[in-house]
Write a structure and sequence with these properties.
Helix 16 packs antiparallel against helix 17. The protein has 18 helices and no strands. By secondary structure, the chain is mainly α.
Amino acid sequence: MGDKEMITNGFTYIAFLIFLAGMLLFLEKKTKAKIFNVVPPLVWIYVLNMVFCTMGLYNSEACSNTYSALKNNILYAMIFVMLLRCDFKKLSKLGGRMVAIFLGCSLTLAIGFLIGYPIFKGTLGTDTWGAVAALYASWVGGSANMAAMQAALPVDAGAYSCALALDTVCYSVWIALLLLAVKYAGRWNTSVKADTSTLQAIAESANAEVAKEKKAATSADWIFLIGLSLMVSALSQMVGKSCNAALSGVGLGMFDKGTLTTVFVSILGLICAGTSLGKLPAVEELSNVYLYVVVSLLASTASVSDLLSAPMWVVYGLFILVIHVVLMYLLSKVFHWDLCMVSTASLANIGGSASAPIVASAYDASYAGIGVLMGVLGAAIGNFMGLGMGALLRLFL
């Protein structure tokens, strides 16, 4: 493409990315088209920006410089705001049994990732371990955790695109299967001798906790939170750089600046979540705004041609889900876990706090709060689990 056909101004580049994301979200809200149930707006944002990248729309020095200036800065701000929702006092309302079911899902998914990676590694493409670890972070927490791994690990843009394709296809198949399984819950529960005696009490406690958050955000909340998150991003990167220099001096240079910054900002976000900052009403909305901007930026550097290897990625994802189901059934036999909570925990891992209430409510409307809190728990631990998975996958290199 010639210069006339590409964006050659940094501000125009950012304006176009945010306008495209906003337009897609507006279309979903206004039209309520079924296509957005199958392929959510976040995926459309990624795919369309990939198409424009392949066409050469963003292939200019101005776009490249703007991307470099903004991507990590906004990413760390997003991680901090996202984790402000993860107050462990709130999560304690789930109780030990629900947390155990959630972590059981996280563990069985991890086993699927680790068993499958050596098998599929040759067909996934080169330099894929970082993208697979990012995908696992997403399958514990959500899309924001997947984006966070971009800064913490060497995630190849092409492999990230394929991981997103896997995520989209497998999520759509999985939510359909979990909803279909509702009618067979009785057979599962009888087979594993499920214990549902305290379920309603936990549901009421979780719903009361979720209901506390429903307050309208003021402009003061937004400005304060934006300013705070951007300042945290700046300070965290300074800390990450200093820690990297200190560790390199004692032979621990493998802990790079991106990893250390991600760990620091994640811990800081979780600490602040237990304070009044975690109760600010703009937290969820701002973390979503940051997520759409970050995903738009990431997609603007990826090419559609990378998706050619996506079919084998989808097969890898389905392989992981089969391992996950078999192992969760065995764990349910041992610990007497019911299908409702196993399904909710599974979707809280793979889909996040927005999706888990869907399958929970299919069993009983009062269980929605359990799904939300399970999703929040995933967001809290997703970054750390992704980093751990990355360390394990590197052993296969």
